[in-house]
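lol so apparently i was supposed to do this last week
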Amino acid sequence: MPDYIFGPVLSSRLGRSLGIDLLGGRICSFDCLYCESGPTLHKTMERKNYADPGSVLAEFKDWLAENPETEPDHITLGGEGEPCLNLGLGEIIHGVKKLAPHIPVAVLTNSSLLADAQVRKELMQADTLLPSLDTLIQDEFLLLNRPCCGLQIHDIIRGLQLFCNDFSGQVLLEILLVSGINDSLENLEKTALFIKDLQHQRVDLTCMSRPGAHIKQKAPDHKTLQDWRQTLKAAIRSVQVRQKHPVKKRSARPSTILDSIRRRPQTLQQICTALGTAPGETATVLETLAGNGEIQVHDNGKHKFYIIKGN
Ligand code: SF4
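anyway here it is w/ iron/sulfur cluster bound
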């Protein structure tokens, strides 16, 4: 049973993305109201080897050997928290690129550690950075992202700016809007000003698709979303993605499906596309897992998401 490698999962921004969990648990510098992984269990800014780099790379090497015909579009460093908290981040990016030089490496981050010059240096080795920055207003930041004590949004903003100035890869900035919290006109104006000079490729606006760790769905109304989209020239994230690499069909293994859902709630179609499993067989496995009480279904009115029970 893999500990650190999961997926591939279908990502709206990265295509079929093979995930590497750098934490091994719910460890994060934030405890966002909207987090889809559930409440943060260990809130910290302390960098440690939460996942041992040697073990992570050995597992990745085994995965490559066992899946010679499955080529993900990206290898994405993430997990159920903030991956930059792993002290071995630089070593892991270097090792992954050495083992799979032809597959781009992406890193998901909440941007909180970008104020640290050492973290910025380690991230320079990546091909794509996906930082999130929901608000530029300290009060909204405290309310929405519930960061570690003492974290200041202006330090994070400065860190992101410094990183983007020097980075030669692509930066895909993500903003998650929650109605009544960070969809204010003041935040929109500040964000528009900030990204005007930011070296980035794209801004993705997103909203909650299911209840988060601490609140139910609070998506802004259509007009507010359109105002944000037009002002920032942002894309509104969609789950429809084109596949660059067709996937060879694989059998639906309950452990692989569980492992994938644990890191990210997904629809049946997303699971099948990402893992290359047949819909009928996958649906049967999902029914069994739901019957056993291991997963549950959340229907947001448009899509049915499969999530780990208790999240
Ligand atoms: S959404 Fe991301 S940054 Fe926020 S608590 Fe969850 S893992 Fe941490």
